[in-house]
Amino acid sequence: MSNNISRIILHIDMDYFFAQCEEREHPEIKGKPVVICVYSGRGGDSGAVSTSNYEARKLGVKAGIPIYRAKKLAPDAVFLPVNMELYRSISDEVMEILRSYCERFEQESVDEAFCELTGKVSDFDEAKLLAARIKDEIKQRTGLTCSAGVAPNKLVAKIASDFQKPDGLTVVRPDEILRFLSSLKITDLIGVGKKTSERLNELGVKTIGDLSKLSKDDLIREFGQAKGAWLKQASQGIDDSQVEEREGTEQIGRIITLKENTRELKVILDAVDKLSEDVYRKLETRKLSFKSVSFIAISTDLKTRTKSRTLGAPAKDFETLKSTAHELAKAFLNEHHFLLRRVGVRVANLAGEKEQKTLGEF
Ligand code: DGT
Ligand code: CA
Ligand code: CA
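# calcium ion complex -> structure
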């Protein structure tokens, strides 16, 4: 054994994310097949499926297939275009909950993140309880389900979150890793792409267990030093990569429900002041600057819209945050004429002191 202290890592992956967001926006479509489409802009149905809910997947409609094929497979499905603003704002809600629970946090994509739980819990039983609580809170506060994996490293945690979907929770303890991986397909190893898996298939390797039986030397001969060595380690569930915050992806936001539905400027600006203060306090604690500000509005029929501005240079003072948020809220109310139910303020393009110093030094 290495002298590594055993780590406990949680990976969260939202279930059928874009489609689930749309189900939250339009509750009437729940239960029907839902297909999210990237229209190519060449007119008609040209384009591909981005994702679909599980009802549509049962009919064979999956990410990547052409829209016209999806329409043949599921003629009665609900077809919707990608609404990235909506998915981002729901993603922010999810990430904020996750971040509050973990020691270190790494957002991997719009719907996935790693949380380091090592110092927060003392063993995998406690980690399982905490993961269940986090899943519950995400469900309570955002209405969405996710799948969770808990394991001693990122590689295995990510495979575990994919193991029982949707709404799954899979824990893989250190002594269970080899057994857990052995029957999985090599393509379940994150990082094994089409080319590698085709070559491995030719060598008679189908499962991760098969792969772990090949010698490191043989793998290096076949795939080169870096990839070969990595394949050997990965097949044994070994991964030392750290959970690390990614610069630039982080956002801090806060949303509140108004006492009553309104579009009265004074009420909304009062709410914006309070939200700006909350967001500012978080920035200040972590000594972060921001370069973009968004005003978020959720209408009485629960549709989410945002208005954003990118500043000419990073700022870190309360006045800039508040005045920008005010301007955005006013502009929003001029452009949209519905009643607001919830409002929010969000900052993004964050940077810490270190990066600012480096930038300032040159
Ligand atoms: P899951 O995790 O299997 O329950 O389903 P999703 O839909 O969450 O799939 P995932 O985690 O691979 O991807 C997250 C989101 O990213 C998904 O909701 C839509 C988008 N996405 C995934 N694959 C594609 C793709 O091939 N093209 C495009 N445009 N978007 C994709
Ligand atoms: Ca997902
Ligand atoms: Ca994902």
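# post-check
Residues 13-14, 17, 111 surround calcium ion (ligand 2) (CB under 6 Å).
The mean pLDDT is 92.
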